[in-house]
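Here is the promised in-class demo. Please do not try to memorize the tokens; focus on the logic of going from shape to residues.
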């Protein structure tokens, strides 16, 4: 499992997830981030589940990893 980020194109919101998973010698960590546009009425929980599924699909080694942190916010300053 690497520690590289993942950009998901332009979107209205920026998200970030960090993961930890045992690897036999200890633990490995990874992080993924990108942008997305939540559908109208979406909840944080729904977006977490959708993004978690997308990450697992893109990187099957993270499918069983524990999410240590998740954040999603409007992508504007």
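The designed amino acids, position by position:
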């Amino acid at each position: 499992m690497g520690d590289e980020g993942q950009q998901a194109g332009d979107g209205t919101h920026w998200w970030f997830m960090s993961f930890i998973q045992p690897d036999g010698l200890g633990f490995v960590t990874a992080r993924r981030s990108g942008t997305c546009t939540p559908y109208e009425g979406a909840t944080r929980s729904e977006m977490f589940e959708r993004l978690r599924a997308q990450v697992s699909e893109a990187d099957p080694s993270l499918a069983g990893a524990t999410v240590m942190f998740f954040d999603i916010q409007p992508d504007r300053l």
